[in-house]
Amino acid sequence: MADPVGDGLVTSLARPAGNITGTTFVGPELVSKRLQLLKEIIPGLSRVAALWHPHAYSERTMANMSKEIESAARTLGIQLQFVPADSPGEVANAFSTIIKERPDAFILMPSPMLFGEFRRILAFAANNRLPAMYQARELVEAGGLMSYGANLNELFRSAAPFVRKILDGANPSDIPIEQPTKFELVINLKTAKELGLTITREVLLITDEVIE
């Protein structure tokens, strides 16, 4: 979950109470940073489609996420359009809507369901020469343009100590919920070149990993 406290799952991150602990990493505030980074590498970016799964997380989390990116779009002077897909069967229609709207780029909003459709989404972006921002490096490694977010492999590894503590007798309510301390920007230079984009030195300096 993005906000386990706000969504009422736990009392606090430090002392969750109940029978829940773990990691949290979605973060509604990250979507605005992704939009900002997308604008930095695309000169004259003015229209962006946000491919999103409206029920990916709780109603509160989704509302906060949409407010964050709408606010960022206004600040950056970007016209933003949400394009919903509530199931894998709706993804093709979402693609058609994006093509019809003719955006300069699109951003993939956080969603386990949409992450599972990443090969279709990457093929759509490539076939239509659309720059896109993703939330996980795995999509950039598979040919996507860029991503900004927590390293999922590191998060998976960080779950092991939770399991060990609980198996050793610790109460989940006493194990603080962890948040990532680092978010990484990953850019695929080969994809950027295919899209006719030049990644500036300024952007490269803040990039954590460049895929060539």
- Approximately how much beta-strand content do the residues carry? 5-15%
The CATH class of the largest domain turns out to be Alpha Beta
Radius of gyration: 18 Å
**Largest sheet descriptor:** 7 strands, mixed
The low-confidence runs, each spanning 5 or more residues with pLDDT under 50, are: none
H-E order? HEHEHEHHEHEHEHHE
- What gap, in angstroms, lies between the N and C termini? 33 Å
Quote the average pLDDT. Answer: 93
Structural class: alpha/beta
Oligomer: single chain
Would you tell me which CATH topology of the largest domain applies?
Rossmann fold
Q: How many domains is the backbone divided into?
A: 2
Q: How many distinct helices?
A: 9
Share in helix: 40-55%
Summarize the structure.
This protein is globular. It is of the alpha/beta class and 212 residues long. It contains 9 helices and 7 strands.
Structure description:
The structure is a single chain. The chain has about 210 residues and is of the alpha/beta class. The chain has two domains: about 55 residues, Response regulator (Rossmann fold); about 150 residues, Rossmann fold (3-Layer(aba) Sandwich), CATH 3.40.50.2300. Helix content is about 40%, strand content about 15%. It contains nine helices and seven strands. The chain has a seven-stranded mixed β-sheet with strand order 2-1-3-4-5-6-7, with helices on both faces. Strand 4, helix 6 and strand 5 form a beta-alpha-beta unit. It is globular and about 55 Å long. The mean pLDDT is about 95.
